[in-house]
Design goal:
By secondary structure, the chain is mostly helical. About 65% of the residues lie in helices and about 0% in strands. The longest helix has 26 residues.
Length: about 230
């Protein structure tokens, strides 16, 4: 059996294990609630910020971003020297595992997040060129509209387009077959993120999407002192 086939599976499992660290769920439980019972029912940054406040939302974002970043760094450290020609492919498989673990955690009845904060980990851990564009793709739309979903959707789509362009330019140093595989996997993850945001997309189109604020209290925020 091709060794790379085995390594793909290993990296997918590594990513899934990292993805199982559900920051929003754990933080909610520490405050006596299941975050999935409130707001959008999503165990992610945006719902945590709306329900638990800005500080909690930022903790969730950092935790979810770091689990993806650390998973990619770990795989790079383990396989970077032994398989330098395939390290970007293995990173993509690792990220796929993180997204699956984050979105569909087995111990939470497969009800997790939407894979947005972990995408930030991919931006910082896959290739340096993704960092400035990733920041711009998310923060410009969000700061302009206060719609987290809009920034999230553009982050996934824009990064996917950038991956295709830079891959074709040879910036990742991978073969044609590997590049095609990378594009297919990342394309699937982008489709999955957009699919999981389908309700948000409908609300964006109809003008009923909820805004999320960082510097002031969101209307859904709980007063846990009264619980």
């Amino acid at each position: 059996m091709d060794q790379l086939i085995i390594l793909r599976g290993v990296c997918l499992v590594i990513g899934y294990i990292f993805g199982l660290f559900q920051t929003a769920y754990i933080l909610g439980k520490s405050k006596g609630i299941d975050i999935r019972d409130y707001g959008s029912g999503n165990a992610g940054t945006t719902n945590a910020m709306r329900i638990l406040g800005t500080k909690a939302g930022l903790i969730v974002f950092i935790g979810d971003m770091l689990k993806a970043l650390l998973a990619l760094l770990l795989v790079g450290a383990i396989f970077g020297k032994s398989h330098p020609e395939a390290v970007y492919l293995l990173k993509v498989w690792t990220f796929a595992g993180v997204v699956l673990g984050h979105d569909y955690p087995v111990y939470m009845n497969f009800k997790g997040g939407k894979g947005v904060a972990v995408m930030a980990g991919f931006v910082f851990g896959f290739h340096w060129s993704f960092i400035p564009t990733g920041l711009a793709l998310f923060f410009i739309p969000y700061l302009t509209t206060k719609f987290v979903s809009l920034g999230s959707l553009l982050l996934y789509l824009g990064t996917f387009i950038q991956l295709i362009i830079e891959g074709k330019m040879g910036m990742f140093g991978v073969s044609g077959a590997q590049l095609t595989e990378i594009i297919i996997i990342q394309g699937f993850l982008t489709f999955m993120a957009w699919f999981r945001h389908r309700a948000n997309i409908k609300r964006l189109v109809t003008g009923t999407e909820r805004k999320t604020y960082i510097f002031k209290r969101n209307s859904e925020q709980l007063d846990l002192n009264k619980k």
